[in-house]
Every structure is written in structure tokens, then in C-alpha cells.
Amino acid sequence: MRISIKLKFSLFLAVLLILAVSVLSYFVLRGVERNEQGQTERYLAQHVTTVNLRVKQTYYTGARLEPQAFMQQRGKALAAELAGFTGLEVTLYDAQGQPAGTSAQGGPGPGKPDLSAALGYALNNKVAYQSEGDRLFYLAPLQGPEGQMGVVQLQYSLKGARSFQQTLLNLFLTTGGAVLVLSFLGGYLYFNRAAVAIGRLKKSAEDIRRADYIAAPPVRRKDELGELAEGIYFMSREIESSIAAKDEERRKLQLAVEKLQALEQQQKQYIGNISHEFKTPLTSIKAYVDLLNMYDDDPKLLHDAKINIAKETQRLYEMVEKVLQLTALEKYDFESQAELLEVESTLRDICGRMQGKAERYGLTITLDVKPAHIWIDKESFMHIFINLLDNAIKYNVPQGRIHLHSEVRDQRVWITVRDSGIGIPGESRDKIFEPFYTVNRDRSRASGGTGLGLSLVRNLVEKQNGTIALLEEGPDGGTAFELSFPLVS
């Protein structure tokens, strides 16, 4: 069954109007209900204050009795008197929850609602209320000379409030219905003009499909349909030139295929590297498991196995974490929350975090950093320099040094991380940013290195519009990395 677009638009408009009126009605009615409820509670709370004052006055001016005896002897008269003050039906209960008096005709006999739960709540010096039909029963503590000596119950009629709410609901229904009908008719007539224009556009598209090109825009309007008509007109004039564009697209597709083939080769190499790196710690773990199966009563073997299995397991965990981070950066769009970051204070914070680890290795961290601001994701910035400082600590020499220096030049912030460690051989300088590449595999395994840290750092730096480079060794050897980020003036 075919439904015209003007009818669809009109129905959609009607649904939106129904939704808007329904939501508006709901919130207005809920607001009115909450407002009336608040007013009722304040009104009844004021009456409870009056009741307490009157009861205390009666208690102190009459013959002194125990609170329980006072309630039983004077409760009925007090209830009638308080009903005259408040204009509400009043019922008094003693401290045991027994009725002491009521202004209701016939007393609290059968047919009355069960208020035992609310009464028990009020006997604990708390306010409770319960709705039954068009009546609200409000129970509050009745205070005596030494604390609570009973409960006062006020009966309040809800008929007026509910009548007002029903009147307001009927007003919303009638007004909303009238607006809905008028809006639907107006929308139908308005969308009919758009449907006619769309029909002309459809006819023009059919003409172009049959190579019967149009000589002028089929619709002249100053809106999106007019722009679409202009687009169809120019499309019909440019079909011949689109053949060349198709050839260009074919060439681009071929380039894309070649790039995908290269990426596939890289992926195979990447998987091979991962498998090789994972196999080494797994082989070590398996060897210790086999030895434990044969010599499970050797304490020294058990001690060595615990230490080495834990170390290899931690290395595997760190390797998996970094592989996942590196894969996310290379395969998906990097999602960051850039902010204005102050370089000096952030670098001091990072060095403070790494100071404890450096001191355990007998190393000294010094800073020479200048105030500057950059626009960057703070978590990425922290990860970059924590990773570089961690490498500087792991691959340093005893009593070594780590120095951070920053300066501003050429509208960029330049940060150098230099250490007095073992350095990087010349043949490895071009490969250190490749995944899984380590200068010395034995030393890397001893320190827990995975060969992924610098690769991840480079990706994070480039994603933040930065650069990273390995500097030439200084006269004292060691390793130095120089990073730069755009300066924010």
C-alpha cells in the first residue's frame, strides 16, 4: 500500500504534537500535584503546631496528671475542642496507640480505614500520612512535658484538589485535541506544496535516467528543494564529464587495493612478531610447570618457579595491554579530550610520581622546564612522559641521572628527556619505534620490556600533532628524546 509523503509528514507532525502535549500535560499536572501536596503538608503541619500548643496549655493549667491518664481523661474533650480550632476532624491517641478521643461522630468504629501502620510510624516521633479515597489522614507526634505522649490525627478532604486537577486535565485534553486537529490540517496543506515539488524532481530524475537531459531547474524555490533542483540541473549538465571522474575513481580504487595488500603483509609480519614475543615467556612458564610436575617437593625450585612465572606473567600482561592500545591507535579513530595544559606543572607532577621508583634504583631526576601552554589530551601527555621516564630508569646505570628540559621556540614547545644510561647503538636507532623491537632482548626481558612502549609513544605523540626524535648521544653517552608540540599563545 503506497502512502503519499504529504500524509506521512502530516502524521509525523501529529505524532510530535501528541508527544509534546502529552509531555507538557504530564509535567504540568505533576507540578500542580506536588505543589498542592506541599501546601497541604505545610497547612497540616501548622495545625499540628497549634494542636501541640493547645494540649500543652491544657496540661499545665489543669490538674497535674500522668500523660497517659491525662490523655484518657481529657482526650475526648480536647479532640472536640481542637476540631473547632482547626476545622478538621481530630482524633487523639495515647502513647500506647489507643484512641483517647475523636471529634468524629460515632467514634473510630467499624468502617474506618486501617491506619495501624501509619500510627505505629507516628508513635516513633515521626510524621506519617495515608490517603484513603478522597480523605488524607495526617498523623503527627503529640508532645508532652517530657517527650511524646501520644499522636494527633487530622483528617483532610482531597475533593477540592482532585477536582481542580481533573478540571486542568480536561482543559489540556480539549485544548490539545483542538491544536492537534488544526495543526494536522495546516500541515497537510503545507506539505502538499512540497509533495508537488518532489514530484517534479522525480520526473526530472526519470528524464535524466533516459538521457533526456533537462534545460532548466524543475523547481524554483528558496529552500532545500530549490537547492536540490539546482543540483539535479547541474548534474544533468555534467554527466559527460563524470566519465573522466569514474576513471579517476577506478585509479584510486586500484591504489586502495594495493595499499590493502601492503597492510595485509604488514599484518602478517605483525602477527608473526606477536607470536614470537608471546612464545618466549610462555615457553619459560611451561618449562617451570614441567619441572614442578617432576620435582614438586624441591623448595628452591618452587621458590624460583613462583618468582619467574610471576615475572613472565606480568610481562605477558603488559605486552597484551600495550598491543591492545597500539592496535586501537592504528586501527580506529583516536578519541581524545583535548584541553589547555600547562607544561611546567604537569611535567613536575609526572616527575614527582616517578621519583620513588628512581630513588629505588639510586637515580636522580632534575628539571629545567619553562612555563608554556599546549592544547592536548592530558592522559596521552601523561602516558607519553611516564613511559619515557620509565625507560630512562630501567635502562640507566647505577647512580645515574635523568634530566628534563623544555623551551619555547618557533611557536612550538620543545621538551627533551635525557638520561645517563646504556644508550642505543647506531644500528638500532632507526628501528626503536617499531613494534616489538628491543635493542637487547636479554636486558629487556630482565627489566620487563616488551618493545611496544616507544611505538605506542610515537603514535600518541603524532595523534596530538606532535613530533618525537632520538637525538645524537652526548659526550657522556646515554639516550635523549626530543618532543615538540604546537604552542598555545
Give a brief description.
By secondary structure, the chain is of the alpha+beta class.
How would you describe the overall organization of this protein?
With 489 residues, this protein is of the alpha+beta class. The protein contains eleven helices and twelve strands. It has helices at residues 5-61, 67-86, 116-122, 159-209, 224-237, 239-294, 299-331, 343-360, 378-394, 441-447, 453-463, and strands at residues 89-94, 99-102, 128-132, 135-144, 147-157, 338-342, 364-368, 373-377, 401-409, 412-419, 467-470, 480-486. The strands form three sheets. The protein has a five-stranded antiparallel β-sheet with strand order 2-1-5-4-3. A hairpin with a 2-residue loop joins β4 (135-144) and β5 (147-157). α1 packs across α2 (67-86), α4 (159-209) runs parallel beside α5 and α6 packs antiparallel against α7 (299-331). It is flat.
